[in-house]
């Protein structure tokens, strides 16, 4: 299929993963425990975190822990990078596991074995001409910082993060040109354990804790930007958000207003601070309504103002539809961000995520219209069950259709005037699902023989989408 919308020369095609979902080797190389390492597998994993008494310990008699081995990228990265190169990747979005560099998070000296591992990964990528796009913190905070300090609620964690960033920037300044600070930073508004390092257990403490933690992350992010500019003036450093445009269910003005407020809080709050360099006007009303009093140290606001990001990277999976009064029957079952079912959208069969490629075009226009900085779609994909045929082939036409329609939407957005840097679909290789800990919820263009019960050979197989995406990259988006 020919795409009439041409992509710009130098467009950054690639794929995206996260250390905690692909690496495995959870206790090798002096690595410490992170949040993902203590998350059990299964659809209830995020609910478990909200139960009183969840102790962030590994209990193998009671649970399985799919992240411990994941897909064993830790030992198989050369094989996987060769497959990425075969597809023609220009970039590979990955993350550094904080606990490989500082196992407990609060040490004074880094772990050389962890640093050396990423040296090898970056060297392997460069061997094939692939630029790493590195997320500094991707849902894998050291468990020690959660248990001993309360996660990002603690100002001390800013100091620990700054030490970590200083070490990796100095070590990899000749090897990494593209950096992202916090993965899906705004997701903490819905599930704070992954990004903010604590589970909300008391409603009375919910708002104060969340937004104080955010302030600390904004200070940490700005510190990283400042350090990046000092050490790597030619590098680019961006923020990363989970973007989900919020539609009003109908034209009832009450629903329109509610959708606008939800959209602003979720999609613009964190980006306004990181891109514009100041807290947005709309958040003041929110702070007043919920009696939120931020502890802001002298110099914080100046640091944030003077160290804004170079670009916005985003994940886009779905839109969200909202109304003020929603019944249980109306709620969107699969959408991790709640909302109500949109009668105009189809949903993925197994997990119920609504599919809305036009929403990506809308999102890119909204973001670029508000900020006028380059955008980078670093996550987008379809989780589905894949069947291996008797001849060994995997015909995932449903994934091809999904990606094709979203790439078309990006092309339309660029015609609309949006400046888009690149596209790295999520899970270019099968990996452990963040929300459910399943392997069966597959996103990859490369199949990994690993099942939910832990069985499998870990053999890699090229899916039909692998060959399709190779053609997309080779034609710079013209052949879809």
The CATH class: Alpha Beta
Cα radius of gyration in angstroms: 21 Å
**What would the average pLDDT be, to the nearest integer?**
94
- Number of helical elements: 15
Termini separation: 5 Å
Major sheet: order of its strands?
1-2-3-4-5-7-11-12
CATH architecture: Alpha-Beta Barrel
User: What assembly state would you assign to the polypeptide chains in this entry?
Assistant: single chain
Strand content: 5-15%
CATH topology: TIM Barrel
- The succession of helices and strands, N to C, reads EHHHEHHEHHEHHEEHHHEEEEHEHEEEH
**Sheet with the most strands?**
8 strands, parallel, barrel
Spans of 5+ residues with little confidence (pLDDT < 50)? none
Give the helix proportion (percent range): 25-40%
Structural class comes to: alpha/beta
How would the global form be characterised? globular
Total beta strand runs: 14
CATH superfamily: Glycosidases
Domain module count: 1
Structure description:
The chain has 480 residues and is an alpha/beta fold. The chain has one domain (12-474): Alpha-Beta Barrel (TIM Barrel), CATH 3.20.20. The protein is 39% helix and 12% strand. The protein contains 15 helices and 14 strands. The strands form four sheets. The protein has an eight-stranded parallel barrel with strand order 1-2-3-4-5-7-11-12, surrounded by five helices. It has a two-stranded parallel ribbon with strand order 6-8. The protein has a two-stranded antiparallel sheet with strand order 9-10. A hairpin with a 6-residue loop joins strand 9 (346-347) and strand 10. Helix 3 (73-87) runs parallel beside helix 5. The longest helix has 29 residues, at 203-231. The mean pLDDT is 94.
């Amino acid at each position: 299929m020919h795409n009439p919308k041409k992509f710009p020369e130098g467009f950054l095609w690639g794929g995206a993963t996260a250390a905690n979902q692909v690496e495995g080797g959870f206790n090798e190389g002096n690595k410490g425990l992170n949040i993902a390492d203590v998350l059990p597998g299964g659809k209830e994993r995020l609910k478990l975190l909200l139960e009183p008494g969840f102790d962030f310990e590994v209990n193998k008699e009671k649970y399985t822990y799919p992240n411990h081995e994941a897909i064993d990228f830790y030992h198989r990265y050369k094989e996987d990078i060769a497959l990425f190169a075969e597809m023609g990747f220009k970039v590979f979005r990955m993350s550094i596991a904080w606990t490989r560099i500082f196992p407990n998070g609060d040490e004074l000296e880094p772990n050389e074995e962890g640093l050396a591992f990423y040296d090898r990964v970056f060297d392997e990528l460069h061997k094939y001409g692939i630029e790493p796009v590195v997320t500094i913190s991707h849902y894998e905070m050291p468990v020690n910082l959660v248990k001993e300090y309360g996660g990002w609620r603690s100002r001390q964690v800013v100091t620990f993060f700054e030490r970590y960033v200083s070490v990796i920037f100095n070590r990899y300044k000749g090897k990494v040109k593209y950096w992202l600070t916090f993965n899906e930073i705004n997701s903490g508004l819905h599930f704070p354990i992954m990004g903010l390092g604590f589970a909300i257990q008391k409603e009375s403490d919910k708002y104060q804790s969340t937004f104080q933690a955010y302030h600390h992350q904004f200070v940490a992010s700005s510190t990283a930007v400042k350090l990046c500019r000092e050490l790597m003036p030619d590098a680019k450093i961006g923020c990363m958000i989970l973007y989900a445009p919020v539609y009003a269910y109908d034209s009832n003005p009450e629903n329109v207003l509610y959708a606008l407020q939800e959209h602003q809080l979720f999609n613009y709050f964190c980006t306004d601070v990181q891109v514009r360099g100041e807290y947005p006007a709309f958040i003041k009303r929110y702070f007043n309504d919920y009696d939120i009093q931020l502890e802001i140290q002298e110099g914080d606001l100046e640091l944030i103002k003077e160290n804004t990001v170079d670009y916005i990277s985003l994940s886009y999976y779905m839109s969200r539809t909202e109304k003020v009064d929603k019944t249980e029957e109306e709620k969107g079952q699969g959408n991790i961000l709640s909302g109500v079912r949109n009668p105009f959208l189809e949903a993925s069969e197994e997990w119920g995520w609504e599919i809305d490629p036009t929403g990506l075009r809308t999102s890119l226009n909204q973001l670029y219209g508000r900020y006028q900085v380059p955008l980078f779609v670093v996550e987008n994909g379809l989780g589905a069950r894949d069947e291996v045929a008797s001849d060994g082939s995997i015909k995932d036409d449903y994934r091809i259709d999904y990606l094709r329609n979203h790439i078309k939407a990006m092309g339309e957005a660029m015609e609309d005037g949006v400046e888009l840097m690149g596209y790295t679909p999520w899970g270019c290789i099968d990996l452990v699902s963040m929300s459910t800990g399943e392997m069966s919820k597959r996103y990859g263009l490369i199949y990994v023989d690993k099942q939910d019960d832990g069985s499998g050979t870990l053999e890699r197989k090229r899916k039909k989408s692998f060959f399709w995406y190779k053609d997309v990259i080779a034609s710079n988006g013209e052949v879809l």
